[in-house]
Amino acid sequence: MTTAVILFAHGARDPEWARPLRQVQAVLSEAQPATHYALCFLEFMSPDLQQAAAECIAAGATRIVVVPLFIAQGGHLKRELPEMLAQLRSTWPQAEFTLTGPVGEHALVIQAMAGAVREMAGT
After folding, report:
1. Distance CA 98, CA 92 (A)
2. What is the mean pLDDT of residues 59-69?
3. How buried is residue 63: exposed, middle or buried, by Cβ count under 10 Å (0-12/13-18/19+)?
């Protein structure tokens, strides 16, 4: 089973907004070149989730893990994303789609943000 990871972000009208997310994708891809990492956006930017899934399937993925690059779970992740995943499962029934929680709720990220705040505030 070949695994791919989709990094799912909100998107913004300003293209510079995505720069740190593209850096995350690059770090992951460099560290694990055998795993396909795709970055996609809910709105304003492309590719979207459907396009990213198609990219992963074309790369040979049979298991796709969707990791929301959101700070916390809100309406987009509670309502819209599950509906979008249902559509992906219908389009590609041969692939397994898994959804994780938002990266911002992971203990490592919470600790990293707290450390960054302390450093930035000088406390």
Report:
1. 13
2. 97
3. middle
